[in-house]
Amino acid sequence: NSFEYKKRKIIQGIVQGHSDENIGRASAIASDFLVIGDIRDLVIEGMHYSNDEKVDKLMLSLSTLGLLATASTVYSLGASAPIKGSISLLKYGKRLNKIPTWLQKRLIKEVELAQKTKSLKTIEKSLLPIQELYQKVGLNQTLALLSKSRNLKELTHLNKFATRFGSKSQVLLQVTNNTALKQIEKMPNVSTKTFLFASTYGEQGLKSLQKLGATKFMKKVRVGANLAKTTYKGNLLPLFMKLLKSIPNSLLYAISFFGLFYFVWKFFTFTKKIF
User: Fold this and answer.
1) Residues 29-39: what's their mean pLDDT?
2) Among the four 2, 29, 174, 206, which has the fewest Cβ within 10 Å?
3) Residues 6 or more apart whose Cβ sits within 8 Å of residue 36
4) Measured between alpha carbons, how far is 11 from 28 in angstroms, rounded to an integer?
């Protein structure tokens, strides 16, 4: 029946670390946050190795680190819990192919060092920014932002970026073709509200903001918006009359005379062709 089927899928997720059903995937993810998930993945990768199959080095490293972190958390009365949380997040991200190559290589090397020294201090520098990012924007955005990073320096910048823009961070990068990260460094004094407003015009909006400055940019945008609004509402005539008042009379007379002359000349040419 349905209950038995769901139970099998839950067990499949816990034991195998993957499933073809959402409920099984959920149990696999949940187990990643527990020591059972680390033991399971170590066994799975060990079986791959013994069968001459491809071993997922990152998953092996993270599972090993997970056991170390669990032991450290117990020993330190919970002080290492954030590290364990980061490891679980990374394991989940690995299953979704969201962990950038640079971070995978770095983590594998640092886990090897942590095993030798029996200390997590060497890897904290890489893991704590990830945990901080998670606390600011949640799981999905953390993985999305993490996948855009190319090195630890960029990860640090993403942390600062997320601190300022919070849940809007991912969308902000998407609409600006990822240029918002660099642009905000060039305009640290621009208000968050103005920066977000400029980003609604995409990458070009941020470039204009940097070039013109906040005051001129907002003024220019308002003029364009007001003109569009006036045209849309059918109020272009009052605007046109106001424009006429600003033109000197002498120029208006000259334009009128030129127009009359042009009309007479065209009329004369036309009648000449007829007759």
Assistant:
1) 82
2) 2
3) 14
4) 9
Which residues have a Cβ under 8 Å from the Cβ of 45 and sit 6 or more positions away? 55, 56, 59, 60, 63
The tens digit of pLDDT for each residue in 143-176 reads 999 998 999 899 989 999 999 999 899 999 988 9
pTM of the model: 0.68
Residues ≥6 apart with Cβ < 8 Å to 181: 154, 157, 158, 161, 173
Nearest-angstrom CA–CA distance, 194 and 218: 8
Phi then psi for residue 150, to 5 deg, are -115, -10
> How far apart are alpha carbons 111 and 69 in whole angstroms?
11
Q: What angle do CA 62, 68, 69 make, to 5 degrees?
A: 80
For the chain, helix, strand, coil in percent to 5 are 80, 0, 20
Contact predicate 83/33, CB 8 Å:
no
Contact 93, 143 (CB under 8 A): yes
